[in-house]
User: Fold these one by one.
Assistant:
Number 1:
Amino acid sequence: MNELLLIVLAYLIGSIPTSVWVSRHFFDIDIRDYGSGNAGATNVYRVLGPKWGTFVMAIDMLKGIIAVKLALLLPNYLDYETPLQTLQLGLGLSAILGHIFPIWAEFRGGKGIATLFGIVLGISPWTALSCVGVFLLVLYFTRFVSLSSILASIAFPVFILVIFNVDNPTYRVFAIAVALMVLLTHQKNIGRLLKGSESKVPILKHRDRRRQRRREASSQ
C-alpha cells in the first residue's frame, strides 16, 4: 500500500505542468497554442525565450529527481540496492506519465525528456551525464533539439546494457522502453526532420554567421 501511495504521488508531481502555468501566469497565454503546440521546455525556449525555457527545463528535471527520491521514504528498501532501484524506476515511470498526461492540465503535457533526465540523474548520475554529452554533441553540430533528444535516448540503453553493464534486469528493460517511448513521442519531429522542415534552436549564431561569410567569400 505504501508503494502504491508513492506511485500516485509521483504521478501528481509529474503532472505539474510547469510550462503551462508559467505561460498562463506570466504571459497570459497557453504555450500549447503557440510554436510546436508542445507543453515542453523546448517550445517555451522558442516562444518565451531562453530564460523561461531554462527555468521550465530545470523544474521538469526536478520533478523526476523528486519522484525517484520518494523511494527513500520506505526504510525497508534502503539496504537492498536492486529492489530500491526497481521501485525508483516505477516511481519515475509514474512521473513521466504524469508529465505526458498531466491531471492538472487537461491531460495534454510534454514529451517527458527533461523529467526523464531528472529520473536518470537521480538514480545513476554518470549515465545521465553520458547521455547529456551525446545530447550536447548532437545539438552543437545540428541545432535540432528533437534529434539530440532522440539520439541521446537511443544512447541510454547502450550505456546501461553495454558500457556500464547494469545488472538490474528491470533497469535494462526500462532503458530500452525509454528509447522506444522517445521514438514514439517524437514521430512528428522525425517526419519534419526527414522533410527538412524541423525548427532549429537559435544558438551558435556567431558560428553560423562565420560559416556563411566563409561560403560567401569562397563563392566570389
Number 2:
Amino acid sequence: MKPEIRKIVTYDEEIFIEGFREADKPWRMFAVAAVLRNPWAGRFVEDLTPQIKAYGPILGEMMTKRMIDLAGNGAAIEAYGKAAVVGLDGEIEHASGLIHTLRFGNFYREAVEAKSYLAFTNTRGTANAPIMVPLMDKNDAGRRSHYLTIQFSIPDAPRDDEVVVVLGAAMSGRPHHRIGDRYQDLKDLGHGLDNPAAV
C-alpha cells in the first residue's frame, strides 16, 4: 500500500527588501507539497490507521529528502512546519491523519536535528485554496523572530478526492525582527520560564 501521488510542487522565495529596508542577507522560505489521492474520500472510514502507517514513512522520507536538497543541509534550516489541505470529499481528520503521525514528521525533525514540535495547519479547500504553512524555530518555540507563515496555492489542487501534504522551512527569521521573544513577556507578567503555558 503506497500513496498515489499525482505531482510534487516546490515553492521557493527569497526576499531582498522587507519593510522598505534591505535585508542583511536574503530571507528565504520554501516548501515541498505532495498532491495525492485521498484514500478515504467520499465515505466514512472508522479506522484510518492502515493508510496512516503505510503512507507516513513514504511521504516523510521522500519529502524530507527534497527539503534537505533545497536547503543544502539540515543545519541550514532554522524554522520549520507542516500543513495539509484536504479536498471537499474528505474530512479534516484525513488531513490531520496524514501529517500528525511520527511516522511522517520524525523524518523531517531528525534530518534538521530539531527539538521543537512541527508547527502545523490542517484545512479543507478547493483547487487553488490558500496553503498556509506556519513555521517556528526548530529548537526554540519562544523565538518570535521565527514565527513565520509560508503562503501559496496550487491552481489544480486539491481536487475533491485529493490531499495536499506540505513541509515548509525558512533559512532565518524575519530580517528586521524587533518585537522581542516570549521570555521577556513571561518575566514581565511574573511567570516562570518553566511554565510557559501559563500565558
Number 3:
Amino acid sequence: MTDSIIKTMDIAAPVAKVWDALTDHEKFGAWFRVALDQPFVMGQSSTGHMTYPGYEHYRWEARIVAIEPMTRFAYEWPATGGDKALMESGVPVPEWTLVEFVLEPLENGTRLTVTESGFDKVPEPRRSNVMRSNDGGWAEQVKNIRDYVEG
C-alpha cells in the first residue's frame, strides 16, 4: 500500500499496560518524546511541543479521532515529516494523516500495530520525503514504546 506506513511490534506486557502507555498523555510523552499540554480526549485537539533532541522548539498538534479502550487509539496530525524548514515556517500544513495504534492480545503480551495513512493527499515531492521520514520515525517509536513498557 503506497498510501500507508505500517509497523508491528510484539511487546512482552499485557494489553492494559500498553494501552496505558498509549493513552495516558504523560506516559505517551515519555516514550514519544513530546510534552503534551492536556490529556487525550475524543474529538479534541492535543497540543504541546517536542522534546526529541534537536526538535525541542517544534509544536505538537493532533486531533484525537478514536479512543476504543484496550483496542484502538487514533489521531490525525499534520503531514510535515519532521521537515525542519516546513515546521519553522509557521505555515500550517493543509494535509493531515491518520495515525492508528491497534492492540491485539498475545499469549505472552501484546501485538501493537501502528498505521499511518492518508499520504495520497500530500503533493509530490513532499509526499516521498514525508513518507521516508515518518517510516524511519515509526520504526524508532515502536521500539521506544516497547522499551518503555517492558522496562
